[in-house]
Design a protein that fits this description.
Blueprint: E1 2-6, H1 14-25, E2 29-32, H2 35-40, E3 45-49, H3 60-79, E4 83-88, H4 99-111, E5 115-118, H5 121-130, E6 139-141, H6 157-164, E7 171-176, H7 185-193, E8 200-205, H8 211-221, E9 227-230, H9 239-245, E10 248-250, H10 260-267, E11 272-275, H11 280-287, E12 292-295, H12 301-313, H13 327-343
Parallel strand pairs: 1-2, 1-3, 3-4, 4-5, 5-6, 7-8, 7-10, 8-9, 10-11, 11-12
Amino acid sequence: MQIMASPAYSRENPYIESLYGSIRELGHTVDHFSVAGVVRGQYAVWHFHWPERTLNDPHWLRAIAKTVIMLLLMAIARLRGIQTVWTVHNLGSHERFYPQLESWFWAVFTRQLSGYISLSQVGLDVAQKRFPAIAHLPGFVVPHAHYRGEYPDTLTREQARQYLNIPDDDSVALLIGRLRRYKNAPQLIHSFRQLPDTHSRLYIVGSPEFEDIRAEIEAAAAADARVQLHLDFIPPDKMQLYLRAADLVVLPYREILNSGSAVLALSFDCPVLVPMAGSLGELQRVAGADWVHTYTDDLTPTALAHAMDWARHAPRAQSPPLDPLNQGAIAQQTLEAYGAIVSR
């Protein structure tokens, strides 16, 4: 099978390259999106991830142009016999710069799909309710694969802490990854700063999406030396430093459907604290409640302190059971979804 993907590679997230690398190993062709590929009609499937990214451009003319061009190319693809498949990572753009344009975009985009893949059963159900146009299309649940083996992982906890100059008896919470507004970093800092424990640390690590987010994070962290900021892109070989040194990864999302960051933390054997929202309950059932701790409503200082104590002292196995999220199995399930959509 010949597959075109948007995107087929990513500088920031090995999820994409790992998925398509596994599909290629099974004997199939996967190319990155190109206009020529659409016009020639040489692919059986055009697979979309995060199509809402066209709406995340802060320049409104560019956002409109990108959105309209993509939808026109989808129409051409359908005429050329290419089946259009969407993986439902999100139900909307995170920034929501252009509500009216976005509403129109989703209405047109979902009417041009041939089928879709959800990373969770919850995601499949809510996508069908949000977008009635896909209710009659073939839909499949294919979970997010783990990241084991995708990043260098050679350091012990002691080595990582020594590199970062963290004492062994300090309790370390971590927010890691691309810093966008929905990840709620300033609120996490505010909750952490109310903890009296001088042996607790909070690391905020990753590149802010926009400069105003950087300014908010820096202002929230000012005057508390326990909050450590590393607001830059994290090279793959440095990811292990923070994830192996941390006791707990905290992901205080304002709203969420799926979380690759939670899967990443578990892949490095680090417990996570997440809201009971979206598919995170399903992730808790896979990894176990001794690895995925949840809270409801807003993250309070009390809930954060309890989770940090839980992460450090509760008994658990050396690693969470992530075998159901094996990349080879995920690739096979994705191909089966393609096959059912194409044959239909």
